[in-house]
Write the structure tokens for this entry.
Amino acid sequence: MAAIGAGSGHVRGSEPDVSITFEDQESNGRSVVIAEVATNKDIFVSIRDENNSIGRTNLDAGVATDVTITLTDQITESQTLSARAYPASGGSRLERDDALVSVGDNLPERINGVEPQLIDANPNAGFNYPYYLYAPDTFEDEEPKSLLVEPTNTGTVSDEFEEHRKAGERTISGGFGRQIAGELLAPFIVPVFPRPRAEPVDGNHYVHQLDDTTLSLESGPLERVDLQLLSMVEHAQDRLTDQGYPVADGIMLNGFSASGNFVDRFTMLHPDRVLSVTAGGLNGMAILPLEEAEGHTLPYHVGIADVAELTDEPVDLDALDEVNQFLYMGAEDNNDTIPYSDAWTDDELRQIALEVYGDDMIEERFPRCQEAYQEAGVEAQFRVYEDAGHTPQPAIDDVVAFHRRSLEGKDVSEFGQTIRATPEFELTPKNPTVGDTVELNASSSTGGTSDITNYLWEFGTGDTAVGETVTYTYEDAGEQLITLTVILENGSEREFTDRVTVTETDDVSAEDEKDNDETDTDSVVNHTEDDETGIEGEIDVDSEADNTTGDETGMDDETNDVSDDDGSPGFGVVGALAGLGGVGYLLKHGLLDNTE
């Protein structure tokens, strides 16, 4: 084993923040294994030869063993490599360890790739602009890979096409997409579409986002750039095949910021052609797979109501559900396109976007996107990276792994997280009789990207309560609606309502009690966010529960279950709500005077 290097960035005399154990090993020349990395902070580890970084991976704080790192360039002879650790956010090297990596004689036969090259526009083949093509060296024992696509993103308007070409050249030569292609051994193209200022169309056409004005073009060289991209893909596939380079069907897409919007929207238009897509920095506003929401018809590029009119083809939601989608944001990202007219040429569309998505990119918009996908029955993985701004850096390893698992046909659900608030509660017993003390437990609720600060209950009788776990006794038989409202740290609210049937004691037979006791003892109720009715079904189990008093929730009995003669909450509840920051809730439900 090689000795631990002395190039640590920790304070002299203190315990190191990071340790690396990189042992001498045999390799197939395409990957190396680090025996152990221990770190008390998030880091990335780079594998370097004498001159360059040839592989890297991100690691969270903790201890990781047998860390395999795929090399972007195969090594063909034995040599000493170094494993170097750096802070995830960048900075000086923290630790280093070297190892002799031996390469045997029985390496798989190499298939030569294609160095980055510009392929000229070919209107006869269906594309009016050039694209860059690159293919890393691959090997006979590798399965053919789908083509990876990342559109050009200049970040500015210009009628000088050379600026857009240079942006495409940077992407194909050393950008994020190039790294993905290198690690996956997949061919890679970068379409070079312009983002014009005045020619051939004005700057209100945000081509690099594939926005509504661009998709609406009915003539000129920028007409239907989405179809031009498909033609580029077919052209590149044919070209590679003719050169003996293996390439599979389907497209992998990657993009960030404007190009993230492009690939997200392209996937909605052509899901049958896309294997997987990774899109980040979306301003919190992924295109929604809905035609209507919040009382609005949703035209492209907020939703899909007019896609059939624009493209002659409706969106195929079944095909979209088959696409592996990874949509991500940084929790500190504040790069919002809403104020800019090139991204939102139509003021009416901008207003619809604000009313449907919300104002805050992370706390409102992105969770609303996840909700919309769930409403449409389309699976997608959403993720928010803590302490990250408008950068794809923290997602790099996840993006590579996501596409790799997609190529292998493996499940990708582990890459997602629940970013929308999800109120839910357990009720015991599930179907109470008159006089039963019912316990309602909302501890399984989640706040998504925010923390839950308060839990507010309405029992359908005019009575209310506050707390994560509360109890209530129904004195009359009949159906009642239980409403749970969670108040989030960011000030927003999420609500779920469900129906409970209270029966007279004699209405439930001994046989029913026996059957119910054998099947269920409690209920977990999943929410429908902000649903005015929220009714998902009756609760129908009659099982006894121990009486839990209000003392266990930090409230006395008066606060837990009090109402005035007119059915409104008693002073104890109103005071508790106001004191716990529920003023917005009180105003919404008419429990405070809002005349001042």
In short: The chain is about 25% helix and 25% strand. The two ends are 75 Å apart (CA to CA). The longest helix spans residues 225-242. The chain has a mean pLDDT of 83.
